[in-house]
Amino acid sequence: MATESFIIKVNRTEVRVTTDMSVAAAMMMAGEPCRISVRGEPRAPMCGMGICMECRATVDGRKHQRTCQVMCVPGMEVVTE
Amino acid sequence: MTRTFDVVVVGGGPGGIAAAAVAAEAGLRVCLVDDNRSPGGQIWREFDRDGTKDNPHWREFARWTERLRRTRCEIWMGSQVVDQPAANVLRLERDGEVLDVGFGKLIVATGARERFLPFPGWTLPGVTGAGGLQALMKAGLEVRGKRVVVAGTGPLLLAIAAGLKGAGATIVAIYEQAPLRKLAGFGFSLASYPAKIAEGFGYARKLRGVPYRTGCWVKSAEGSTQLNRVNVTDGAKEWAHDCEWLACGFHLVPNLEVPLLLGCEVVDGYVAVDAFQQTSVPAVACVGELTGIGGLEKALVEGQIAGWIAAGREEKVRAFSTRMKKLQSFARRLDEAFALRDELRNLCTPETIVCRCEDVAYSAAKACGSWREAKLHTRCGMGPCQGRICGPETEFLFGWRDTGVRPPILPAKLGTVAGVLDPDQSDASVLEQVPT
């Protein structure tokens, strides 16, 4: 299965990703936090396996997505929440 | 709609795959349910992709998944258990839909997660779990050229560091909190110096040139909005490393949510099972890390035992008894060797966040007398992870034990909780309103 490269949008920044990349990985590579915590701290992926909930972000308008469990697809728009 | 199977297996790692394969080969109608996108669990994560065949575990993964695929076992990926609405029925959520599945026998193989411990700066972007960074790398994160400090405890640190280095990361150092004498006592009898330990695990060649130090731990992480420095100590001296990532995890804790939901008895942090993997709840078996952190081989053996027992073939299990004893003893010795040192209880400042979901500070949590009190007064453990991260933390820091689980056991859609099927409610997440 060949990997294909394409662009997704992370907070208005265009990021080149591949089909086998999770949204969490894409956000880390873009240097964008996934969410802002209750007290206003930026947070990024920690556990990588869908448990810690730190990688929650809005993916194509759907809130609270665990981005480490969501794979990138062409045209995707991801927003820090 | 409820579909019923002879056996439902929850968890598609090695233990679950072995259990499902054996039960299905014995002629039972089996359904394997897993939260992830593809089977394999954590240790076999993403093995179905190209470029993983040089991993020493790949052949075993291929053999077991092929064995399972030759059966008529149904595999339901992306499915989370959220509740038990009636006896012998599990409620699942898949893509925002509710799905009930009935079972004659249930085999739970939900595995383990990393244990995380708080220290100043651990919430900064750039600080990840050790297994966490490995999982992110397997999910496409480019690590080439990044400087990584690997720290915490457990045999996985070496494997993780080797994997990161193999993918082009610069491993600044590996810091194992356990003292060398404990590791040596664990059975690395040749471990007269740290390099021998790495060699014992077979990673020495891959980790050549990487400092591996025992009896050292991360004291704090620094950075404004991104990690840029890690402070390390051996209890006497302190030193620092500049780096992009800190991969830090403290061995593993079992994912007890499903066994607790079902009412299985837990003793000393693990599900109590008999020689046939049966729990205190009739018709419910548990296998793998749930019964003691012992790794791949233990999970495979216990999975097979549970599969045979589900099929009523007790005579098949006897062959495993000697190996089982060895594997259980290995699990106990692993826990002892990588036991957490007391100094790790004293790293937090009053402001250090203990509960990351609700931003509960160490001082606020410490002021409470119990897990229940902390939940009521500070919302510690009340956020979307539902205590999965801060539960094991506070158990270590304050001796609190989180014994109860209330459904839904993962943040579920409103429709799932109500038992209604309504795809239009897919945005009505109750993430911020988990039940008390």
A few lines on this structure:
The complex is a heterodimer of chains A (81) and B (436). Chain A has 1 helix and 7 strands. By secondary structure, chain A is mostly beta strands.
Any overview of this molecule?
The complex is a heterodimer of chains A (81) and B (436). Chain A is mainly beta. Chain A has one domain (5-79): Ubiquitin-like (UB roll), CATH 3.10.20. Chain A contains 1 helix and 7 strands; from the N terminus they run ββαβββββ. Chain A has one helix at residues 23-30; strands at 5-10, 13-18, 35-36, 42-43, 56-59, 62-66, 77-79. In chain A, strands 2-1-7-5-6 form a 5-stranded mixed beta sheet, covered by helices on one side. In chain A, strands 3-4 form a two-stranded antiparallel sheet. In chain A, strand 3 (35-36) and strand 4 form a beta hairpin. The termini of chain A are far apart. The mean pLDDT of chain A is 94. With 436 residues, chain B is of the alpha/beta class. Chain B has 3 domains: 2-113 and 253-334, FAD/NAD(P)-binding domain (3-Layer(bba) Sandwich), CATH 3.50.50; 116-250, FAD/NAD(P)-binding domain (3-Layer(bba) Sandwich), CATH 3.50.50.60; 342-398, no CATH class. Chain B is built from 13 helices and 21 strands. Chain B has helices at 14-25, 58-69, 130-138, 156-166, 180-185, 194-201, 257-262, 296-310, 321-337, 362-366, 371-378, 390-398, 414-418, and strands at 2-10, 30-33, 74-76, 79-86, 89-94, 97-108, 112-114, 127-128, 147-153, 170-176, 212-214, 217-222, 229-233, 238-242, 245-250, 252-254, 266-267, 270-271, 284-286, 353-355, 360-361. In chain B, helix 1 (14-25) runs parallel beside helix 8 (296-310). The radius of gyration of chain B is 22 Å and the shape is globular. Classes of the chains: A mainly beta (81), B alpha/beta (436).
